[in-house]
Amino acid sequence: MPPNQAIGAMGSHRLLHATPNRVVDLGGLAGLLGYAALAWYSQGTTAAPELWAFFALIGWVSLPVAMVFAFFCRTPDRLPIPRLMIWAALFRLCGLFGVPLFEDDWFRYLWDGYRFMETGTPYGFAPAEAFADPSVPPAFQRLLDQINYPDLPTIYGPTTQYAFLASHVLGPGSLIPLQLLLIGVDLVLIRLLLSVAPAGFVLLYAWCPLVIKEIAFTAHPDGLGVCLLVAALLLHRRDWMVGAAACLALAVGAKVFALLLAPFILFRSPPRAWLAFIGVLGLLYAPFLVQGSSDWAALAIFAETWEFNAALYGLLILWLPPLNAKLALGAGLAAFGIAYWLRHQRTAVGELPRGDWIFGLFLLAVPVINPWYALWLLPFAALWPSWWAWTAAWALLLSYITGANLGGVAGLEAFAHPAWVRPAEFGVVFLALCADAWRRYSAQSNQTKRIANG
After folding, report:
1. In this structure, is residue 152 part of a structural domain?
2. Is position 17 within any domain?
3. Is 338 inside any structural domain?
4. What is the rounded CA–CA span in Å between residue 54 and residue 168?
5. Mind listing the pLDDT tens digit for each residue in 105-153?
6. pTM of the full predicted structure?
7. Which SS3 state, helix, strand or coil, does residue 293 take?
8. Which of 49, 69, 99 is the last residue of a domain?
9. In the structure, how many helices (H) and strands (E) does the chain have?
């Protein structure tokens, strides 16, 4: 090969390998600027952040995800993992410079950490009981003024309470330690996903605006439970049964949602795994139960009375009493769960359960669908890519369009939606589900034709 052709070939080779890095870096820089703008805007310099600006910024940070994913969708093996992780971390760190958007749950997290530190338990005590307590420091009195439903004890499980306690020890009254802890856990989850899922779809999770908003900006602790649940599934896949059971117990201690996948981990596990699960769960609850309280009472009130952004449940209560609607949906979920579990037992050993189906149907049926509940679904959408799951990751953000966030216009109650929100939110997910069904049908038809044509 002549020297000039050799030099040209070397240049083309370098360009081929440099382009993926540049694409990720350009997308990462665009996303970082968007999250920095979101952090700045969340401060609300003259008034509370407005919804139109929030959705504009979400649109901004969504474009780099879509563009980088499109670039690598046919060659996911070329996606540079270290750069994916670096930008994912930088996006999340922007949350440290903002304030939680359209959320006040974090006041409860900080209060629970304080109560845990001071009394040995955050349970069995409603924040309202401390309103006139002169022993509460002024900084925490200010937190008390912002807690929602102050007449109810906390609903957060013991695993998350230990996280709140650790955050309090590191920085009393500050959200930043908790944000850093949850960001670290979420980055661990991304690394776990990279060990089993295509990198391109892990990118969708790692750079997902809903994930970053709900974990890094708003500090919702669901990510802690999800990471533990995914770790339990991967340990079970490697036949590390005791470790899997322990992680499952910690996940259940973070949120009861994790119980939905418990049969796939514990069934046919040896007795030592069951003992590990029961033992770890018992150790989590024992310090609180001996003091006479836990999260169960508040969870029962939540399950009985609360409704927000419901899908099927919201439709059924137009015709049925709430209890009958819950029983009907519960029976339907149980029937699906049993049928799928029986099917899964016939699959290859080590195959992970379809958490996207399980959590997707669960959320479709429950009376409350907060946007951060999607954190339980999206890691599985990286394993089994679908239009409907990732559409839901964006569509659920529409649930923030409430009377409170609209400033009381149109006479809506604080947590009520304008009439168009839920049809738009769930309608677009349904259309995406139809697109997935058509894609599978087309693929099967094409395969049948190829077999018929020899």
Report:
1. no
2. yes
3. no
4. 30
5. 999 999 999 999 999 999 988 998 988 888 888 888 888 889 988 999 9
6. 0.92
7. coil
8. 99
9. 20, 0
